[in-house]
Amino acid sequence: GFFIDGKFSSTADRQTQDVTDSKAAVVCSTVCAKDEDVASAASSAAGGFKTWSELSCYQRAKVLLKLASVLQRHSQCVSELCELSQSSVSPAVLIRLAQYYASWAQLRDTLMPEWIPQGVVAVVVSDDCSIYFLLLKVLPALAMGNAVIVVPGKTTALPALLLAQLFMEAGIPAGVLNVVTGSEASLGAKVAQNPQVNYLTYSGRQQTGEALAKAVAGWGVPMSFSLSLSSVCPFIIFDSADLDSAVDGVIELAFKKKRDFQWVLCVQESVLDIVVARLKLRMNGMKCVPLATEADRNLIDAAVQEAQQQGATLIQSCPPGTGALYPPTVLCGLAPSCESVMSPPPGPVLPLISFRSSAEGVTLGNHSPHGQAASIWTEDLTLALESAKSLCVGSVWVNCHSVMDPALPLCGRRESGNCTDGGREGLYQFLRLSHSPSLPHSSPSPINYADFGSAASKFMIPEGFDPSSVPRFYSQFVGGQLRKADSGCSKSVLAPGGAVLAQCPDGGRKDVRNAVEAAIKVQPGWMKKSPVARSQSLYSLADGLDKRRRDLAVSIQTQTGISLEEAEKEVQLSISGLSDWAARCDKEQGGTPFLPQSGYPLSSPEALGVVGVILPNSKPLLSLVSLLGAAIAMGNAVVMVPSEKYPLPALEFIQVLQASDIPGGLVSIITGGRDQLTQALANHSVIQSIWYWGSKEGCQFLQYSCVSPLKRLWLHCEEEEEEREAGQNWTSSNPSLQEELWRKAVVWKSIWIPTA
Prior knowledge:
Blueprint: E1 2-4, E2 7-9, E3 16-20, E4 26-31, H1 35-54, H2 57-73, H3 75-84, H4 91-111, E5 115-117, E6 120-125, H5 131-143, E7 147-151, H6 157-170, E8 177-179, H7 184-193, E9 199-203, H8 206-216, E10 223-226, E11 232-237, H9 243-254, E12 262-268, H10 272-283, E13 289-290, H11 295-309, E14 313-316, E15 325-326, E16 329-332, H12 339-342, E17 349-355, H13 358-365, E18 370-371, E19 373-377, H14 381-390, E20 395-398, E21 410-411, E22 413-414, E23 420-421, E24 431-433, E25 459-460, E26 476-478, E27 481-483, E28 489-494, E29 500-505, H15 509-528, H16 531-547, H17 549-560, H18 564-584, E30 599-607, E31 610-614, H19 620-633, E32 637-641, H20 648-659, E33 667-669, H21 674-682, E34 687-694, H22 696-705, E35 712-717, H23 718-724, H24 735-744, E36 746-754
Parallel strand pairs: 6-7, 6-9, 7-8, 9-10, 11-12, 11-19, 12-17, 16-17, 19-20, 20-36, 31-32, 31-34, 32-33, 34-35
Antiparallel strand pairs: 1-2, 3-4, 5-24, 13-15, 14-16, 18-22, 21-23, 25-28, 26-27, 28-29, 30-36
Helix pairs in contact: 2-4, 2-6, 4-5, 7-8, 9-10, 15-21, 16-18, 17-18, 17-20, 18-19, 19-24, 21-22
InterPro entries: Ald_DH/histidinol_DH, Ald_DH_C, Ald_DH_N, Aldehyde_DH_dom
Organism: Cyprinus carpio (Common carp)
Protein name: Aldehyde dehydrogenase 16 family, member A1
């Protein structure tokens, strides 16, 4: 049955689905939830949240500590049930999770006084996600004071139901943790669509995550995704590695029945023959590995046949038989573009590619569209650290693999996820600032996603037009140069009274493409600059803004209709804000988390890459400078879309950018229709994050579209916020606003170096 409101419940007329063991024998059946079960769970969670959030930090921490002792007492039962349902995990790992998050539950109000829980959190995992990744979502959500509705996958359903019962034994109030079972994609969407649910987080395969995001888009629920199970990760062996240890690592990692990630073996050419010979020796006589399903056998056979047609040679422990068993296999001599490298088949099949130099090895490591983790093997510490820094992944293990601990941030990059799990950094997805507006709950709008933004009106400058009738023609700022829109179209900029103030370009998809091409050329160099050098560039930008304060104040007054005194105050706050970000450049850093294992962990923030920003109407200059400062201070490039209603302050700010020593192309400012440019930013695969202030329909479109390619989203429904007078307070001096901006501008990388 389901676990709702602190007890198990089941209804006779529900459909069931079988849970099978590793031999395909039916262990038991779980019940599939209906709409009324979802409503009951959401109502229970809303009541549980009220009770749980009113408890003190000490009381919540006490429950999680009690859970650790309960897990210890029932460790054999937990272990056997996880093994039976093919979701094996060591009880010691679960105990460590409970103890770690109990301490954060105790410290929440002390270290995060401005942050409050999201409310009711829906945690959805796919069928083959492990219980560890499920609890890496559930426990921090509970520790931060949220109530949780769990929608487990088939393999985690039984352990999740058992853990819910153990939570009750630990003393958690009824309703704080609820478990409903069924088809994770459709059931997860029903849970998230309930108006009492405030946040959705998902862990598992990309296909299920995409379906879930599209079903929930427009319901006003923020979403985060950890797509580790679909991630392809490099296992890189340099010629300076201890080859015996590296080959042992390959055998341990690649030929298990169930893997958390897909792996590709990359070996330096100078030691390729030695590694292949040792692999053959170690694989000789290894038993066939059971496949998850018989359908996987067809996928493996097709992938191996295609690889052989492309010139690959096989290393196999024994000849393949028939059925749902397959021998450990290495596909040697593949090209990086081969389908088996880009998307390895399931089961015990490992693609192998070679590289010549260390730099080429790192390039191959970044070849995949994913960015979850990497394992690098070398005895050269300098090479290890340089390679770890250059790899675009969230976790790097040096001379080891799969080191998991809740203190280490696990942060997906690119197609591997848009959130951080683990560490202090992983707690913030379950929190929001007390004064920060949330998305409004409502039903989705009827949107044609394919045509979104394409109906924007265009105004072509007619032949014989008298330029003297318009005070000024502005250009947009793309790639460090002033340019007209690629389409040749323009828009009228109107004063509050309706008079035409100027003409500005009506940018589109090609302008965004040009801006991103310029950004990716300059952003890596900007990111590698020392924080001190970036700081000096920002101070230079603030100084240029100060020199043009009068012109900018007049443009704000003319465009928005506020008094000159208020406009001058906004300019002064903008100068102060830029100076703050200049000062923070070399102050924000990572650290060395404390882990129970013997080793040296590192955790550090890194730039996202290229960020798209659709600016709000409120405070058109101050909001631009605040968001621009946060993004480029952390090493990002930005493509900014000024307020469609008030673009003049941003266009005047272009002259400040031109006079500064900010590299050309790092910042682009494109004017035009908000929906049209939002669509162009969302569909560009290079842009890693979008910060959006705009309409409800725009928020819905981004949630629907930005799961493929996956992007980090920071969404604000400005129209609803203006009605509720609950928008972002850009004039606030509260340091938590800058902290939130900083956290949105970085991703986290953890590096683990074992010691003797």
